[in-house]
């Protein structure tokens, strides 16, 4: 391990490299010892691969005694976005489309989403936003990368992007100073010349950069252009532009990045291309960007800088000041991460999934449960479809999309829908008395005689929350014991009761004339086309195991977790169903679309409207409703949301306003029954899902705008 001298210009390099894995890319860090790296398409295969690559290279840097590498990427949106939806990231609208929308707050939210996704794979510097203005016609080489032609409007959008990225713990780099303007010349190929006066540029083109500085932008990238601010020298090499204007006039104290030094705009003229880096340092740049992999050019550029320092033609104080700004940027990163509302969302290595996306599932699995499935749809179209984990810890066999999970109390939704399907058929009245169908209900107690089905469906019956059926009791005897449980309180207040839904299951059997297992299949699963939703999975099926229960023979695999449902033979109105997230999401979509496959839209309106309230808890008929309590699973969703959770770590939520369905299945009881951390993780995951859904919905709306 060696340290670098204070005047070593390699510490100021931000370079491209070959390789997609740490082993192949590590030599660039060990041999060149740069301050940072640029990710380009040749380095990118998938979200997991990028996370592994960046993590591995940061580890190499640490081994070499180097500070944290700045990992930069072009992630503007539109045509310039290296990490796309094909890799599991949110596709962002172009700046032009967003500028046309006029919605600054949406731009800030989208930037936050982008920042979270970048941070999840280790990227800490986004080479965005573009602060360049275009002509009113939108022409020029910058084109749709610009927010528009109005300096004041573009200034607002630029600030919003910077604030959003910083809120996610990622540094922003506004570009290209002092403005690329509406020129058609491409600095990758030739040196553009801006046609304006210095006063016009100050009034117009510098406005977005002033806004960027006010928004505490960490970095600003130079433009390889001839501007009226210095009509003789390209801005990247102009001390007038970078020191007199950017530093002194505008007061910028952050990092000044050059645009890529291989670009043809700097070739020819009085300087050789390998001399440009030294001239950029002399002009006031802090970061020397070589996006390509021409190691000979990089080495020759660094050697020339060293010679300039040795001959005292380049003051080593330039390099030291730049090193101090790099250190300040790294401190800013550390501070930003502490305050960032961003949680890594890329699944750990070794887990299986459909698709390549990092998803909010990874906030929960495998940290709180060995396995999970997540299916999210937006307006009926899949947004996330992922599986992660293994049947048990460290098992090499991955969970698959067809693996069944114990739904626990999510079963209650199916019971409620089956019962309301019978109400629609005229087989039972919602406000009819329970004892008229179940004569032994409540063992003839006076309170039991007045109770209705509505009481059971809203948990307002006064029945106890649960009961403890003895081990070894035959299912018929367990049924009789459960039916005989009497209310221990007056009806009215909400007391969540498994017993009430056991009774609903018994009633469905009496009314429909079949077993509850057959009734749920005929009234719900078959009409809704849910082939993988059923009680008592077969031994041939893949099932996620749940808790280790010595009294029941060890690890539960394919046997219902709920003790009372097990005592009832594995089939009960309150618990017992197994399903996949795909089938559960399909049910959610049908409810969202109100397609009438199970119950009519009018019936569903009643089921998902407020029927009872207990503090922040709101109940429909069988459904849990949105809660204003921030600690509630539903809280990140919209106020018309409905769904249910299950004790094993399962849930289904439907947000009609967002047209969003979330089917989230885990086996969180695998390690026991300490749920506080899991509940918090699920709420965070819901927040991530809502943010991603809002970003996608915004992009669709913007792209559809005339």
Give the helix tally: 21
Overall average residue pLDDT: 89
Oligomer: single chain
CATH class of the largest domain: Alpha Beta
Largest sheet, if any?
Answer: 8 strands, parallel
The CATH topology name of the largest domain reads Beta-lactamase
Question: What number of structural domains do the residues give?
Answer: 2
Helix content: 25-40%
Second-tier CATH architecture of the largest domain: 3-Layer(aba) Sandwich
Q: Roughly what fraction of the amino acids lie in strands? A: 5-15%
What's the shape? Answer: elongated
Which structural category do the helix and sheet elements fall into?
alpha/beta
Poorly predicted runs of 5 or more residues? 341-357
Radius of gyration: 31 Å
Strand order of the largest sheet: 9-8-7-6-3-2-1-10
Number of extended strands: 23
Full CATH superfamily name of the largest domain: DD-peptidase/beta-lactamase superfamily
Whole-Å distance between the termini? 59 Å
List keywords for this structure.
single chain, 706 residues, TIM Barrel, Beta-lactamase, six-stranded antiparallel β-sheet, 21 helices, 36% helix, 13% strand
Task: Offer a quick outline of the entry.
Helices cover 36% and strands 13% of the residues.
């Amino acid at each position: 391990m060696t340290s670098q001298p204070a005047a070593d210009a390699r510490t100021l390099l931000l370079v491209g490299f070959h390789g997609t894995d740490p082993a192949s890319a590590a030599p660039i860090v060990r041999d060149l010892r740069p301050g940072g790296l640029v990710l380009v398409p040749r380095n990118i295969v998938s979200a997991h691969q990028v996370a592994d690559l960046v993590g591995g290279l940061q580890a190499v840097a640490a081994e070499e005694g180097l500070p944290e590498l700045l990992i930069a990427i072009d992630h503007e949106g539109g045509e310039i976005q290296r990490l796309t939806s094909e890799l599991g990231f949110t596709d962002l609208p172009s700046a032009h489309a967003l500028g046309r929308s006029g919605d600054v707050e949406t731009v800030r939210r989208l930037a936050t989403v982008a920042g979270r996704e970048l941070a999840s794979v280790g990227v800490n510097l986004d080479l965005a936003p573009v602060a360049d203005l275009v002509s009113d016609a939108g022409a020029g080489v910058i084109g749709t990368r610009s927010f528009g032609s109005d300096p004041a409007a573009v200034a607002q959008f630029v600030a919003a992007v910077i604030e959003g990225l910083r809120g996610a713990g990622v540094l922003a780099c506004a570009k290209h100073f002092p403005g690329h303007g509406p020129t058609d010349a491409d600095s990758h190929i030739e040196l553009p010349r801006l046609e304006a006066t210095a006063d016009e540029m100050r009034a117009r083109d510098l406005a977005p950069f002033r806004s960027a500085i006010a928004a505490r932008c960490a970095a600003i990238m130079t433009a390889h252009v001839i501007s009226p601010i210095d009509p003789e020298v390209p801005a990247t090499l102009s001390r007038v532009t970078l020191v007199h204007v950017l530093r002194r006039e505008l007061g910028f104290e952050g990092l000044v990045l050059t645009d890529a030094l291989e670009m043809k705009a700097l070739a020819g003229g009085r300087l050789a291309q390998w001399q440009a880096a030294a001239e950029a340092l002399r002009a006031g740049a802090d970061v020397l960007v070589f996006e390509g992999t021409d190691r000979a050019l990089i080495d020759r550029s660094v050697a020339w800088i060293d010679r300039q320092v040795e001959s005292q033609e380049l003051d080593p104080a330039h390099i030291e000041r730049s090193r101090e700004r790099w250190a300040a940027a790294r401190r800013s990163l550390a501070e930003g991460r502490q305050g960032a509302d961003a949680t890594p969302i890329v699944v750990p290595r070794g887990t299986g999934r459909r698709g390549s996306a990092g998803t909010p599932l990874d906030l929960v699995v495998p940290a709180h449960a060995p396995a999970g499935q997540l299916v999210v749809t937006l307006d009926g179209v899949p947004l996330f479809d992922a599986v992660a984990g293994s049947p048990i810890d460290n098992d090499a066999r991955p969970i698959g999309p067809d693996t069944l999970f114990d739904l626990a109390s999510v079963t209650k939704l199916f019971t409620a829908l089956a019962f309301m399907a019978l109400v629609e058929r005229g087989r039972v009245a919602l406000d009819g008395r329970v004892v008229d169908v179940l004569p032994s209900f409540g063992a003839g107690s006076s309170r039991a005689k007045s109770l209705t089905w509505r009481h059971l469906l809203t948990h307002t019956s006064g029945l106890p929350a649960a009961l403890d059926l003895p081990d070894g009791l035959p299912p018929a005897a367990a049924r009789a014991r459960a039916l005989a449980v009497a209310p221990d309180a007056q009806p009215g207040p909400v007391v969540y009761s498994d017993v009430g839904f056991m009774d609903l299951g018994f009633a469905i059997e009496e009314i429909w004339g079949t077993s509850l297992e057959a009734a749920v299949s005929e009234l719900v699963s078959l009409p809704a086309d849910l082939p993988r939703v059923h009680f008592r999975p077969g031994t041939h099926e893949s099932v996620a195991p749940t808790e280790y229960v010595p009294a029941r023979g060890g690890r539960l695999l394919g046997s219902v977790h709920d003790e009372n449902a097990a005592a009832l033979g594995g089939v009960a109105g309150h618990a017992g169903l197994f399903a996949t997230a795909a089938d559960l999401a399909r049910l959610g979509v049908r409810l969202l679309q109100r397609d009438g496959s199970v119950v009519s839209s009018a019936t569903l309106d009643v089921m998902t409207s407020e029927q009872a309230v207990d503090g922040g808890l709101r109940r429909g008929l069988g459904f849990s409703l949105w809660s204003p309590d921030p600690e509630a699973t539903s809280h990140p969703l919209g106020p018309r949301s409905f769904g249910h959770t299950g004790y094993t770590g399962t849930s289904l939520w439907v947000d009609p306003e967002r047209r969003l369905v979330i089917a989230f299945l885990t086996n969180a009881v695998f390690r026991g029954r300490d749920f506080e951390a899991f509940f918090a993780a699920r709420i965070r995951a819901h927040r991530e899902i809502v943010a991603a859904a809002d970003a996608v919905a915004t992009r669709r709306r913007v792209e559809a705008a005339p």
